[in-house]
Amino acid sequence: MNSTALKIVDNVGMAFVGKRGTIEKIVVAILSSGHVLIEDVPGVGKTTLVQAIAKSLGCSFKRIQFTPDLLPSDITGISVYNSKTGNFEFKEGPIVANVILADEINRSSPKTQSSLLEAMQEGQITVDGMTYKLPQPFVVLATQNPIEYEGTFPLPEAQLDRFAMRIKIGYPDFEEEKSILKFQEKPSEKIDTVITAQEVIKLREAIKDIHVEDSLEDYIISVVQATRKHPDIYLGCSPRGSLALFNASRGLAFIRNRDYVLPDDVKELAQAVLNHRIILKPEARMKGKTVSDVVSSILDSIRVPVVRSNG
């Protein structure tokens, strides 16, 4: 694994017990300029994981606790009239930071959730007709409880599509839970900053040089387009899904110390990148099918290209 990425993963692992694969995927998303949605039941460590990642990156960090009464202006900021100068002055909201923890994002209304759309896509916010650039790197790490829980609002499709990955942590195994019982002090106190904001930007630029063969680009497009034609799928992935899978695959190759992407990189990330962009038909759900099942069937049905190891 790339030494810098390894430092981040190892550092986060000191505060978040187990689930190394989950940590790797989040690091891949961040280094490939993507946002991450972490979905799971309460108590599995979603917030702890995000806080550990933010501290490891050494970037400015803000936490936004999403509640039913949260307003868009509580996130982006407002213009306040200064009686001394006679001008309106912009008072920035918590969105102005490098790393944003959008905690329990689906506890707020879709209107409030949508206040993140411009920020996540364009790295800027618009308040009262004025546009303000956000600091770089900018990444949203959102957590949400499963949508069947009381008091939650499903994220709009446009919002979901802006997340590079949706990741489920899952419950710890026996040994992992035993370690959690033994080490109950504040996890964030165990870790240090291992990379600066400027270094993150440099790594993002380096990832753009990772080689992707034409046949592998065709493979990525074929997988995504198959989601639009599958008989069990009501809504398939947009071209943003192709782009996210392409960028994430380069990020995974990078942290694995390769300068080229393999088909296995694409297959390893396909579920996390595509599953939140797909809506199944009601009849498919009634038959007990899941999005994960359908994505797996698509991957099995498409011929995998042979890629030369020398790129």
Total individual domains: 2
**Spatial sequence of strands, sheet with the most strands:** 2-5-8-1-9
CATH topology of the largest domain: Rossmann fold
- What number is the mean pLDDT? 89
User: What is the CATH C-level name of the largest domain?
Assistant: Alpha Beta
The arrangement of helices and strands along the chain is: HHEHEHEEEHHEEEHEHHHEHHEHH
* CATH homologous superfamily placement of the largest domain: P-loop containing nucleotide triphosphate hydrolases
CATH architecture of the largest domain: 3-Layer(aba) Sandwich
Main sheet record: 5 strands, parallel
Give helix % range.
40-55%
| Uncertain residue ranges | none
Q: Please state the structural category.
A: alpha/beta
What is the approximate shape? globular
H/I helix tally: 14
User: Hey, roughly how much beta strand do the residues contain?
Assistant: 15-25%
Number of E-type strands = 11
| Termini separation | 18 Å
CA radius of gyration is 20 Å
